[in-house]
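Extended Data, panel c. Modelled sequence:
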Amino acid sequence: MTKESPTQKAATTQLNAIVYTPLTVEAQRGGSLFDQTAVYLSTSRYIPHRLVEASILLAEVYLLNIPEWILGEKNLGRPSVEKRIESSIAASRFAIADTVSKGGRRKVAVLTGGASGLGYMTAMAVAKAGYHLIIGDRATELGIRAVEAIKAKTKNMHVEFLYLDLGSFKDVREFAGEISRRTDTVDLLINNAGVMDLPKFRPTAEGHDSQFGINHLGHFYLTVLLLQLVKRAPKARIVMTASSAHYGTSKINYPGITSAKAYDRINNYCGSKLATVMFVRALARSLAKTNPNVTVNCLHPGACYTNLFKSSWLLYVLTTIGFQYFLRSPARGARTLAYLSLSEEVEGISGEYWFDERIRQRNPASNDVKSQEELVRYSYAALGMPEDTPL
């Protein structure tokens, strides 16, 4: 793994002094200037909830992305990220763990949304680490091309693509079934796929808002279906892509998940990401009691220039006309995903929300155990399973 140049080290040091907290776990939970700003916005009575997400995005750009850009990170938000994967991932603070167990079994990783953007860059890092990688995505042609590119660049031939539409419980079941036919153990599950800010209520196959249905329910179901395979691994990790948007609401808009009339494009997206953080907390608490060999964490990748913005014409216009220069590249955004997936530094840490390879303050609303339990019950009911099914 290549080392940071003196210039890169100096820039990192300066940036840490501006926005980061010390690296001890307890200190990290204290929060950086950005964390404190996001938490303040999420709990403020003076800012309408519809403006909170935009306010947090602007806070991130001005407190993080612009200083980072000025200090030397060459992230102009362009989609031609393959050339930067080596330097970007190499700049991350992790040493890749062994991917072949003592018994000679190659470790298995499952990654959703790996055909492009953050998922593709994370897939590149995981494949480079030597995992048998299974990518699930609904973009079949793009996914097949991604697998071929990953094989060519990493020389890892143990990479394959399976169709997965997280907006269909039937497709999720079929995908999980294919996984179980290929392996009896999953060492790494990365729930990364997602959609954002859909202007109108767009139902999934089962009638749920696509933002909540794909971002949370689809991944909740996939995790439940694969959990026994994950538990069989000597040491396993579950990593979920959340967002700073989870600060944007104090509660989940349950009526808006199934009703077009109650649908709120911004609140529903923020709620779907709040659900991700809450699910991580609930699952981590359960696994700590029954399977401490499995850890689960979530992260905010940063405001990145990816296809996620294309779901909203306004966001697409803003990110196409100039604003993309202050958004991160997918390669930069994938660093924390790769870090949580592969780093030995995070072994044994579970239930946390991360940003830029550090534990961050969560939206206080995500810490409420009763709200977490309500979410789990709702999710099981949506799947047609008994609400008291244990995680």
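The chain has one domain: 6-382. This feature is highlighted in the accompanying rendering.
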